[in-house]
Amino acid sequence: MGGTKSKPINYNNVKLSTDTVDLTIATPNTVFSIINDEDAKIKYVIDNYTTNDYSIVYSPAKGVLSPRSRKEVKVLVTFKQKVNVNLPVTIHIADKAETFFSLRLRGEDGVFGVDPTNLEWIETGKYKLPKPLAILNNNFQRLDGFHSEGVFRLAGQAGLMKTMKSYMNTHKGDLEVQEEFTINEVANLIKLWFRELPTLLLNGLTSTQIQMSGVDDCWKQYCTLSQQSRDLLDWLFSLLVHVSLFKDQNKMTLQNLAIVVAPNLYESTSSDPMEGLMMSQKAVQFVQNILTHFAETPSNN
User: Fold this and answer.
1) If 183 and its partner were Cys, which of 143, 216, 238, 272 is the partner (CB 3.0–4.6 Å)?
2) The dihedral of CA 58, 59, 60, 66: what is its sign?
3) Tens-digit pLDDT profile for residues 172-202
4) In the chain, what are the domains?
């Protein structure tokens, strides 16, 4: 006689006590719980993670949860550099990897990587922006980024960007104008400011909304974002459309701009690499559709 076949795990019954874990220099560790609502015991494994900028250690990183039980897990970050990073965390439950929560690392204080609500907002033309974006916008205009070939695509000098970002963080968003910095540093700092937000702005939409096709359908979904997200994105997309008007000189079409900017506005939460790649591509198309709407609606620019 064969043995009794075990019942498949319903992964919806394995949960975490939180969907977001925040770690900072001041608070480098915390505790969360894995909750097993299954009638069977389960095994879990969480991979520790190390880069040149930080290391993350879980304790215990693996174990067994009894039926209808929970286990506390401590997570500790050690910062090696001043960085702000958002990471999707995968936990292996039995034989399946699932993304359960977002780990937000904040290795520096200042105007990057913080909730925009906590920043000073100032008038910039028809828009009201957080001070760091307003300052970067002023420098973008001053350096005539609209005519610069490869703007938003070409990388800035890493060391110079680090210096500029550090200055802005320690001077409440102000930026000391120096001869050596170029439009590429300014444009990349704009992208970096959006990328380091605690929650990327287009992650305010569901994956179904991001996968909408067509300009009109995407616009309807875009309009469901919070007013603060819309305020920030309206300015950014208007700026990008203005850049595209000079595509014959700067080589940056709406499609090119969507490709380089979308990764700073949306990140997939899927643990499946193929699904993550597909969602990244869908996000690019979504951004391109929204840019097209802005380009076709003069009142938005």
Assistant:
1) 143
2) negative
3) 889 887 778 999 999 999 999 999 999 999 9
4) 11-106 (2.60.40.10), 116-300 (1.10.555.10)
